[in-house]
C-alpha cells in the first residue's frame, strides 16, 4: 500500500493543458496580423493611385481654398463661427455646393441660394480633390449611376414619393419649409448634382446613404425626375405642379369669379 501511494504521489502532472488566456492571445495575434496586412495593402494601394497629377490638383485646390473659402471655413477647413468644418464632407459635397453656385455665399441667410457658378469645372475639381484629401467622405458618383436611361422610372417615382415628395413636391417643384428655408425645385438639375445631394444632405436635406437608398435606387429616382421633365402634364395646365392648394386656389378665384360675372351678366340682360 505504501509503494502504491508513493507512485501516485510522484506521478507527473499533465503537460498538455493550455493556459486559460492562450485562446485570447491567439485571437489578439490574429487580429493584429489581419489588421496590419489590411493596413499595408490599403497604404500601398493609396500610394499607387496618388500620382503627380493628383498631387498637383490637390495643391491647386488648396490655393483656391485659401483665397476663396478660408475666410469662413478656416485655413485648414476646420470651420469657424462663420462656416462649418469641411473635414470629412468629401468631394461630392464640394462639387454640389460649388458646382451649383451656392458657394461661395453672397450673404448670410437661412440657406445658401443657387446662383451662377463662380469657378470653372477644373477649379471645382481641384477644390473637391483638396477637401477630399483632408479626410474620407462621399465621393463624386460614377458615370454609370447617373445614366437616367438605365433606371426604372416607376420604382424611382415610388421612392421619390416616399422619401422626397413631402418637401420637394411629387413633381419636384419644391416647397416652403420653416424659418425662411425651402426645398428647391429639382427641374433642370443635373443628374450628378441630384445624386450628390442625396449622399451629402445639403441645407435641410437628410443624408440618404447606400443603406437607406441603394445606388441603383438613386439612379431610378433620377430617371423619374428626368421623365417628369421630358413629359408635360397629362391633365393640361400644370399650374406650377404645386399640387391641390394651387389648383383649388385657381378654381376659387377664376371659377367662382367666372360664375359671379356670368350671374351679373344674366341679371343685367334680364332687366
- CATH superfamily of one domain, please? Cytochrome c-like domain
Q: Report the sheet with the most strands, covering strand number, pairing sense and barrel closure.
A: 2 strands, antiparallel
Number of strands: 2
And the CATH topology of one domain?
Cytochrome Bc1 Complex, Chain D, domain 2
Alpha-carbon Rg, integer: 31 Å
CATH architecture of one domain: Orthogonal Bundle
Report how far apart the termini are.
142 Å
As an assembly, this protein is: single chain
Helical residues, percent = 40-55%
In terms of structural class, how would the helical and strand content be classed?
mainly alpha
> Low-confidence runs (pLDDT<50, min 5 residues)?
4-9, 38-50
Spatial shape: elongated
Q: What is the H/E string?
A: HHHHHHHHEEHHH
Strand order of the largest sheet: 1-2
Beta-strand content: under 5%
What brief labels describe this structure?
single chain; 271 residues; mainly alpha; Cytochrome Bc1 Complex, Chain D, domain 2; two-stranded antiparallel sheet; 2 strands; respiratory chain; quinol-cytochrome-c reductase activity; iron ion binding
Would you give an account of this structure?
The structure is a single chain. This protein is mostly helical and 271 residues long. Among the domains are: 51-139, Cytochrome Bc1 Complex, Chain D, domain 2; 141-231, Cytochrome Bc1 Complex, Chain D, domain 2. Helices cover 55% and strands 1% of the residues. The protein is built from 11 helices and 2 strands. It has helices spanning 2-9, 22-49, 52-68, 70-73, 90-99, 121-134, 153-163, 165-168, 191-200, 215-230, 244-270; strands spanning 175-176, 182-183. The chain has a two-stranded antiparallel sheet. The longest helix has 28 residues, at 22-49. It is elongated, with a radius of gyration of 31 Å. The N and C termini lie far apart (142 Å).
Amino acid at each position: 500500500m505504501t509503494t502504491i501511494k508513493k507512485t501516485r504521489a510522484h506521478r507527473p502532472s499533465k503537460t498538455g493543458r493550455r493556459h486559460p488566456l492562450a485562446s485570447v492571445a491567439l485571437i489578439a495575434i490574429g487580429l493584429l496580423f489581419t489588421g496590419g496586412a489590411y493596413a499595408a495593402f490599403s497604404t500601398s494601394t493609396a500610394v499607387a493611385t496618388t500620382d503627380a497629377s493628383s498631387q498637383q490638383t490637390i495643391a491647386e485646390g488648396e490655393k483656391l481654398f485659401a483665397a476663396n473659402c478660408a475666410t469662413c471655413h478656416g485655413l485648414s477647413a476646420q470651420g469657424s463661427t462663420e462656416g462649418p468644418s469641411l473635414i470629412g464632407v468629401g468631394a461630392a459635397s464640394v462639387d454640389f455646393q460649388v458646382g451649383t453656385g451656392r458657394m461661395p455665399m453672397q450673404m448670410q441667410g437661412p440657406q445658401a441660394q443657387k446662383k451662377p457658378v463662380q469657378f470653372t469645372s477644373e477649379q471645382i475639381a481641384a477644390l473637391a480633390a483638396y477637401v477630399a484629401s483632408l479626410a474620407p467622405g462621399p465621393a463624386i458618383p460614377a458615370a454609370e449611376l447617373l445614366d437616367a436611361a438605365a433606371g426604372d422610372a416607376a420604382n424611382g417615382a415610388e421612392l421619390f414619393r416616399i422619401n422626397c415628395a413631402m418637401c420637394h413636391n411629387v413633381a419636384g417643384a419644391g416647397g416652403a419649409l420653416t424659418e425662411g428655408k425651402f426645398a428647391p425645385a429639382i427641374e433642370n438639375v443635373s443628374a450628378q448634382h441630384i445624386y450628390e445631394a442625396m449622399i451629402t444632405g445639403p441645407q435641410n436635406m437628410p443624408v440618404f446613404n447606400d443603406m437607406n437608398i441603394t445606388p441603383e435606387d438613386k439612379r431610378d429616382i433620377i430617371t423619374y425626375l428626368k421623365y417628369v421633365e421630358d413629359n408635360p402634364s397629362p391633365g393640361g395646365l400644370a399650374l406650377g405642379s404645386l399640387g391641390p392648394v394651387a389648383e383649388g386656389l385657381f378654381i376659387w378665384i377664376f371659377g367662382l369669379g367666372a360664375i359671379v360675372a356670368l350671374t351679373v351678366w344674366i341679371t343685367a340682360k334680364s332687366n
